[in-house]
């Protein structure tokens, strides 16, 4: 943090000018040029997402031991700072520092797994720290190699989202398949190659996943359902291939893929991705410990383009199919910035079922779709325009007798692109309970949440 402040002060005293960026938001950069042309530079960005939320909690939910059928909370969904730059024609570096899911329950329970008091003041951490070298450049084609702590991976564009450009209230987190289990908020220590060759964009990586024991929570006990293994650690292999039918996308930072360009580009892509890891999970059958490989793959199409350039209207859409093979019986509940802390109605074979959690990850198949329409520029005069959206997730997981349907409806008030944006979102999710059949969950109604988010990004 001190280094970032020093950089800002140094740049100000050295004539740190506000220059026009070439990125898709067309915003002013906080940038310090390292050569006269500005092709070598260091850049600083900041993004903050504040949530105000009213949530209908899952049955049995408690908040700090008190029963709570609903909650209202205020939190920081994401607060991030980036410092990156082009040092030479071929050398690029990227770092990101920040925190996620910071509300009043952050750090709960009162003691961590080591038995020492929790501390709400240590939530921020390095998300990324990457060095990258460009081995080939020919026109707009390039090949780069890099390594470090990075989100570059396979599976899909939403496995490595640019959080400042999200169209919906939040990304489909199930696509960040191992989030905070064997990675650091979707980042892994990895070496990778990424590039653009004609109409094809690719990324390939070899990652060394973190042991699940270092996730900050107590690892799930070995039982009849697959959970991440604590032995036989193996490397992970990832890949994503994207065919650009129209414009190519921004490739400045490693991994991160734009949510919506707000009509600034004409993009239509077809993609396919995968993540594979041998012996990723384990389970117990009779007296035997059985290991399973994690095999995840997806195919999808992404569309984001202007409808009427003169008026500034635009459309954005995505449709993807995901095959998620973690191992027999794998199922994981999760809820974004969960407002609750416990439950008095546990569900056998899963944990963390309180608050706004739902079966987000599991062995099975997922279909995900989202769509939005940006109205004309100046619809609200000098106060910007509106972009309504909707999303749907259908998860047919092995342990769910009734497949999961998750719905979101919302509208973005785009005040100044993605730099200043207010979003109102309604989410409707299913609730499950233990079924009659062993190890099976059945649907038990639905719950909802209403979220108001304000995002500022520079």
In a nutshell, what does this entry contain?
The protein has 458 residues and is mostly beta strands. 3% of the residues lie in helices and 54% in strands. Strand 8 and strand 9 (141-150) form a beta hairpin.
Give an overview of the whole structure.
- It is a single chain.
- The chain has 458 residues and is mostly beta strands.
- It has one domain: Porin (Beta Barrel).
- 3% of the residues lie in helices and 54% in strands.
- Strands 3-6-7-8-9-10-11-13-14-15-16-20-21-22-23-24 form a 16-stranded antiparallel β-barrel.
- The longest helix has 12 residues, at 2-13.
- The radius of gyration is 22 Å and the shape is globular.
- It starts with a helix and ends with a strand.
- Keywords: Signal.
Distance between the termini: 17 Å
Provide the succession of SSEs: HEEEEEEEEEEEEEEEEEEEEEEEE
User: What is the percentage of strand-forming residues?
Assistant: over 45%
Q: pLDDT under 50 segments (min length 5)? A: 1-27
Largest sheet: 16 strands, antiparallel, barrel
Question: What is the CATH C-level name?
Answer: Mainly Beta
Count of DSSP strands: 24
* CATH-assigned homologous superfamily: Porin
Q: Provide the domain count.
A: 1
CATH topology: Porin
* Order of strands across the main sheet: 3-6-7-8-9-10-11-13-14-15-16-20-21-22-23-24
Cα-based radius of gyration, to the nearest Å: 22 Å
Under the CATH scheme, the architecture is Beta Barrel
Rounded average pLDDT: 91
Structural class: mainly beta
What gross morphology would you assign?
Answer: globular
Helix run count: 1
The amount of helix comes to: under 10%
């Amino acid at each position: 943090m001190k280094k970032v402040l020093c950089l800002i002060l140094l740049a100000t005293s050295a004539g740190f000018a506000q220059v026009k960026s070439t990125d898709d938001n067309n915003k002013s950069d906080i940038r310090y040029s390292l050569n006269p042309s500005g092709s070598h530079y260091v850049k600083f960005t900041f993004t903050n997402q504040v949530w105000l939320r009213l949530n209908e909690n899952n049955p049995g939910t408690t908040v700090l031991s008190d029963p709570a059928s609903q909650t209202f909370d205020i939190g920081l969904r994401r607060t991030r700072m980036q410092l990156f730059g082009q040092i030479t024609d071929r050398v690029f570096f990227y770092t990101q520092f920040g925190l996620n899911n910071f509300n009043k329950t952050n750090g709960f329970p009162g003691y961590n797994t080591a038995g020492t008091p929790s501390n709400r003041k240590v939530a921020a951490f390095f998300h990324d720290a990457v060095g990258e070298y460009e081995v080939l450049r020919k026109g707009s084609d390039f090949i780069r190699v890099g390594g470090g702590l990075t989100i570059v991976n396979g599976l899909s564009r939403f496995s490595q989202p640019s959080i400042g450009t999200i169209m919906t209230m939040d990304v489909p987190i199930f696509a960040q398949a191992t989030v905070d289990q064997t990675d650091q908020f979707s980042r892994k220590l990895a070496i990778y190659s990424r590039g653009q060759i004609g109409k094809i964009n690719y990324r390939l990586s070899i990652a060394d996943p973190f042991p699940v024991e270092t996730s900050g929570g107590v690892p799930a006990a070995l039982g009849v359902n697959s959970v991440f293994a604590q032995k036989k650690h193996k490397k992970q292999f990832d890949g994503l291939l994207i065919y650009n039918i129209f414009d190519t996308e921004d490739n400045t930072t490693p991994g991160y893929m734009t949510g919506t360009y707000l009509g600034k580009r004409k993009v239509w892509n077809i993609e396919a991705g995968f993540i594979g890891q041998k012996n990723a999970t384990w389970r117990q059958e009779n007296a035997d410990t059985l290991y399973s490989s994690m095999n995840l793959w997806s195919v999808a199409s992404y569309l984001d383009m202007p409808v009427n350039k003169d008026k500034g209207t635009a459309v954005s859409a995505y449709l993807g199919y995901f095959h998620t093979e973690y191992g027999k019986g794998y199922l994981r509940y999760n809820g974004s910035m969960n407002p609750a802390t416990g439950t008095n109605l546990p569900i056998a074979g899963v944990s963390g079922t309180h608050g706004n959690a739902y079966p987000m990850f599991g062995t099975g198949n997922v279909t995900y779709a989202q769509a939005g329409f940006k109205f004309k520029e100046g619809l609200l005069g000098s106060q910007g325009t509106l972009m309504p959206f909707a999303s749907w997730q259908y998860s047919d997981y092995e342990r769910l007798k009734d497949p999961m349907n998750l719905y979101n409806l919302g509208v973005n008030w785009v005040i100044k692109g993605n730099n200043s944006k207010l979003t109102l979102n309604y989410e409707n999710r299913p609730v499950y309970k233990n079924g009659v059949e062993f190890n099976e969950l059945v649907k038990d109604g639905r719950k909802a949440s209403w979220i108001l988010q304000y995002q500022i990004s520079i």
